[in-house]
Amino acid sequence: MKIGVLALQGAVTEHIVSIEKTGAEGVPIKWVEQLDEVDGLIIPGGESTTIGKLMRKYGFIEAIRDFSNQGKPIFGTCAGMIVLAKRIAGGEPGHLELMDITVARNAFGRQRESFECDLEVKGIDEPVRAVFIRAPLINEVGPGVDVLTVYNDEIVTAREGNLLVSSFHPELTNDFRLHQYFADMVETTRQVQQQNRI
Question: Which residues of the sequence carry a binding annotation for L-glutamine (predicted)?
Answer without folding.
Answer: 46-48, 105, 133-134
